[in-house]
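Lab notebook, page 48
Experiment: co-folding of the full assembly
Goal: obtain a model of how the components sit together before planning crosslinking
Operator: M.T.
Materials (sequences as entered):
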Amino acid sequence: MDDNKGAQSIIEARVRTSSRRADPRDIAHELRAIGRGPAARSRHRDTHVTFLANVLDNHGDARGVENRSGAVACIGDYVARRFGRRKVVAGKDARLAALPWREAGLLPRFGVVDSGDKVSVSYARRAIAETGSIVLESGRDSPVSNSLLAENHIVLVDAADVYDRLEDAWHSGNTDSNRPRCLQIISGPSSTADIALNMVYGAQGPKAWLVILIATDGPGLAKTARDVAAIRARPGARS
Amino acid sequence: MSPAPHTRKGRSRRPKVALFVTCLADVFRPSVAFASLALLKAAGCRVSVPEAQTCCGQPGYNSGDYRGARDVAKRVIGMLENADYVVAPSGSCAGMIVKHYPSLLEGEWKERAQALASRTWEICSFLTDVMPLAAVDQAPEAALTRRRIAYHDSCAGLRELNIREQPRRLLRKRAGVETVELEKRDVCCGFGGTFCAKMPEISATMASEKLRDAIDSGADMLVGGDLGCLLSLAGRASREGIYLEFRHVVELIHDQRSKEGIGASNANETDTQ
Amino acid sequence: MKQTSATFLQNAHEAMLQPQRSVNRQQLGTMMPQLRDSGVASFGDFDALRSHVSEVRTHTLDHLDHYLDSYVKQATQNGNEVHFARDGDELNRLVSDICQRHEARKIVKGKSMVTEETALNDHLMAEGFQVTETDLGEYILQEAGETPSHIVGPALHKPEAEIRDLFLDRHDLGDRELGDAAALVAEARGLLRQRFLDADVGIIGANALIAESGYSLLVTNEGNGDLCANLPPVLIVCTTLERLLPRFEDAMDLLRLLARSATGQPISCYSTLYSGPRRDGEEDGPLETHIILLDNRRTDILASDYREMLHCVRCGACLNHCPVYVAAGGHAYGWVYPGPMGSILTPLLTSLEASHDLPNACTACGRCEEVCPANIALPDLLRDLRQEEFLTQLTPRRWRLGMRAHAWLLTTPGLYRALTTVAVRAMTWLARGRGSLHRLPFAKGWSTARDCPAPESATTFMHQYNSLRKSRHGR
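Observation: model returned without errors.
Model output:
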């Protein structure tokens, strides 16, 4: 687009006149000298407890299980109680395929969620304790639609993948081959308060969000998290 | 922190305080200036009232006349800088000198402005943090302790000078008064200097909200440290027919005060509820 | 959007005449600060975070050419087509050209203040495209034919009952009824879901652009941004130059500041980074992605004394805490951006002539500055704009002359004394024993809405004090 090359050079020239026009190495040095920003205050000394407590505060459901069998049992239980049927859709992430679904009597469809599906299951790449978030990276095995289109979104997280801070959501390394097309940091079900400040869930995406942490002391962690979350009563928009 | 000017050279003497009475006290409520004078003397200061004082120049400054504001600032600095301290019964006037004079001026004038700023105080903070006023010996005045008195924080005093606890402490210590707190005490009353004349309807809406807040708190008197806010609220209350007594905080801390509150008249005495 | 900033006072007047909306605004002005306080308190050292980000932003703007260059390189390498637009018209044309190239008919949009600035929807609809706003608040406004009143909750001025009536009127509900807010949301969800699935093009904005990796970041609570960015085959990101940040961690710091300041949440529900088009083997995602970098006076602001205004992250905290905004309402400001930030941006992005009331809609209370996550000295910038009005004679003549006279008088104490003496005597006489004056000569502005308390005595303090001093010395 020749026209646009013109606009580009004009704008770049205008930006340059206001710039200090320093050497890139000096710029990098100056940035490094600014240092790091402060971390959020931690709710609990245990990263996993903090994570689950923040998930609860983000209007999510938080469970802890000891192993993969516990995970599918939890999913089966959740689905049965809500829908009676046992139909779920899971992405093609190898970790999802490797779950012992049969033990819970579940037979998921592995693929992309359709708009009518009720439950979708994802396996998080990482989780962030500071904000109660799970991190999903798009890819061949993980369509983005699976985090958005179904009414209920279940996310599995391995204990080793839980990190303290938001910066840990993506380890870029120095290669650009490590850039997922879409990196989602999800911290709750879909919500809106646009109608007269009334809080409603399921605005466009999932109405309900369940996070299952797989850890050796999973159930204990979840219980402690529930106690921690109960301490802070958060004011919120009228619900 | 450098030692107080009046304790230099190892000798302690009574500090020289220049009282900046403010244009509003000068015109609308001289008793505030007299009360300030008496309180500063009671705190152990030698007080002078510089004759050439007029106004700190905020109205012009806030309306965008920086050049005029600079002229005024220079005159005020020249007039006040010989005192150990400058005290004003107003958060916004003190704030003008402390925060805005230095930012308005350059070079040598900036330095002089900064020097003056370091010695300029709003009166409640001066009588708490610099030359503390002793508590009173006698029992608190019954006429006051029977009242429900709310304190109105002016925005400039609050945000430019961090004045929050000092007036409340003085009211407790000197008048035995425990103030009630307004629910929306951090919200502006709508005076804003020239704002209330430029945008009267919006200003009145804000004032009405503040008055409603005062009434909801159960207060029958509203005191504050800035006459601008108080005159504007009293004027709005009068227009709306709301009965509230308005006074400057120094009036309660001092043991003598004007018979009537701001905007009240002798004729209305019989109308009180 | 047709700009009506020139009639700010009249707009405010109309808003203040509506009792229910006025009450709703007061509720917003009470509730949003409480939410923000809670979010900030739970963070810990929020001030340290603000200072840190402010340093990073200042650094970035100081070297904006370097970071812009890096971003364009990385974003292009990621597979995006990167375009530049000097002004709103250029952006609009670029967007419609892309849509036409793809023979698109249906477009879905995430909330983007930038596209409001350029009036993109009007342009696209005139060209025959169907445009659906997918942010619930924006969708409501689109259906109602109204403009936003708040940058985060654009339809918060509309009571629930009005929205119900709107849906009953505009949606094909058949026999279905609409109950509470949840039912209204569900209704919109159903309709919008189909629009997402049918769309040919998705248009979103960006909260940040990351120079080191070419990512753009978009936050929503609804998830509509992600739906716009993943379902349609073409994605267009419309954004501006000052969104640039050097690194991923800087974007994360921005997230920490933004949600807490806007709604008190630690983070928005969906904080998503997009790098470019669909990769081999992926089942969803846009096949083609475009990024349009808009200037629209940002480079002017960068070169001016108002440069720090480019630090604004569009959180809306200043609106929520501004008593003038709460009293007058967002529509009074007459353009895309209301409240304190709008009173600075509107003159800078349109003209001071067209919006000269806005910098005056301020009592300098300082509450906005107190809560601004970007540490922008908003009251100072507003005052500087008032200075510009004074110098360029936009301030009404009466005021300018009055101010000049005022400054001269203040530096001429003899004359000042004489005038104040006359004024006090006159006011005392006019009051005639009453506590207040109903009318004040030469001060119609004051008198329209309030009485003026009468002076305490017939003489000024300085007169009384000087008399006392003379009598004492004359012993």
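Interpretation: Confidence is low (pLDDT under 50) at residues 267-273 of chain B.
Next step: discuss with group before ordering constructs.
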